[in-house]
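Q: Fold this one first, please.
A: Sequence and structure below.
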Amino acid sequence: MPAKLQKTTLMTNDSVEQDWFIVDAQDQILGRLADKVAVILMGKHKPTYTQHVDTGDFVVITNAEKIKLTGSKADVKEYDHYTYYPGGRKVVSYADMMERKPEKIVSEAVRRMLPKNKLGKKMFSKLKVYAGSEHPHAPQRPQELKVNN
């Protein structure tokens, strides 16, 4: 007789338990940090990962203003967006973006590594990025998460 087969269990929205993690971005490399955070937001670090369900956890990133880039990317990298007016392409250099909105640099890097659909938007909403070391999520008791040791 063949051995008893085990069934694969799929998660549902009701059965997902989400934790809170906090990541210190000081002296971290942007792309490597964004990769680790995107995996946690998607839930791929859990054995209960289900592709069509948001099984990921919440992530709070602090010290976004102290993130690092490798090589000459800091001189070359640009961020652009379109205003939907003719000739409305706006380009901002990395240095200007770091001066004005350092948290947007980290959040854009993570957002671009998530799925490009409604589920990806839901996953991205669980990311909280702050330029300094202070954040208002202490009541959620986030666990310290070490990335890029």
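Q: Good. Now the second chain.
A: Here it is, same layout.
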Amino acid sequence: MAVRSISTGVVDQSAADLAAEHDSRLYNADLAPTTTAQRTWGTYNYIALWFSMSMEVTTYMLASSLIAGGMNWKQAILTILLGNLIVLVPMLLNAHAGAKYGIPFPVFVRASFGTRGANLPAMLRAIVACGWFGIQSWLGGQAIAAMIGVLWPQTAQMPLVLWVSFLGFWLLNMYVVWRGVESIRFLQCFSAPFMLVMSLTLLFWMLHKAGGFGPMLSAPSRFHTTGSFLRFFFPSLTAMVGYWATLSLNIPDFTRYAKSQDSQIVGQAFGLPVAMVLYSFIGIACTSASVTIFGEPVWSPITLLGRFHQPFAALLALVALLIATLNVNIGANVVSPSNDFSNLAPRLISFRTGGLITGFLGLAMMPWKLMSSFGNYIFGWLIGYSGLLGPVAGIMVADYFLIRGTRLDTVSLYRRGGPYEYTRGINPRAIVALGAGVTVALIGLAVPSLRFLYDYAWFVGFFVAAASYYLLMLGCRTVASTAP
């Protein structure tokens, strides 16, 4: 039976219960609830998780794109802080079930979508993660190619070097995946403090080149009216939320290893906003300084480092970028889709196999096109997929807190015919709510007069789907009476 620990706020699920009652189509060792022995992540691990995942190239480029788009440094910092405080709310809400029951995202979402229907949101999340995996691998390959260019300048114009570097970095990611989730925790604990030191070193290097903080942050806002600023601000805010919209769904994949609820809540509440604002400031300051130094905003740190002719400093900085990219790629873009693909066929697809699938799909999504400009990155990629994932988050939060009151029958999540069976394993109400949320969020792409709905895609999708789901489920609440 399930035994709840009052002191830690978690539920220990007896392995014997699941061994006797689970359906092999819904269960394998990677999807099973974590045991007490597996709950090894404390507050520091979650702080380190966010520092290691925030301190990487795409965060830098997320912040620098605001400067390239016309904001000054104060406007950019405010936008980033507000966006991350907003996304912290669904992050902590969805994290609760992972820490309480030790279950990963694809199992948790069975409660709302059904034992078979859970594959739909899991695949939406997985495909987005594959795109991110490809983007991070491409950036890592660029960093390696830039390092080679520092050491051997004659290779700078050789496309083959970039492609070999890209594939080499991809293989390195696959090796870490093969080593398992504990290798991720080791990487984060080691690299988080290292990345902080290296990022501050880059900041002070640019500070010296610009001649002080005054010139460094002197790039003015290019918005001369409140209306013009708001037209850029609101889509940018949606992009800030969309940046972590993926992890706000699959955060149970990490909190299932928490020693207690307090460990993950405190670690995340501190780590996410502090890490994002700190590292974003570095991106904002360096991009603003590039306007002073070079006369134009340089939004890519890899390109920026290439503008200086100091091989040792550039090489050291590129090594730091490479380590950061490896960390976030494994932590944010492999763990979740590996579990999601495993959920499709638990008997056939393990975590390792799911990681390999993620890697190959990441190659197929052509990340070099997704990162061709800051406009494609912000207004195409980030906002676009936030309209798909926001509705899933809304349904998960409404189901777990409003419909079930945080109570789940863990055993029934791993077998057919129980309270999460709905209609042949699919909850049609969740599918309708998801469709409503996605349609309203993305309709602005097809109807110009409704473009504002797309600019708020994550928010629109979240609230439309959550409200629709709650209303549809009012007459058929299925909270198991035996749930803890």
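Q: Anything worth noting on the second one?
A: The chain has one domain: 2-386.
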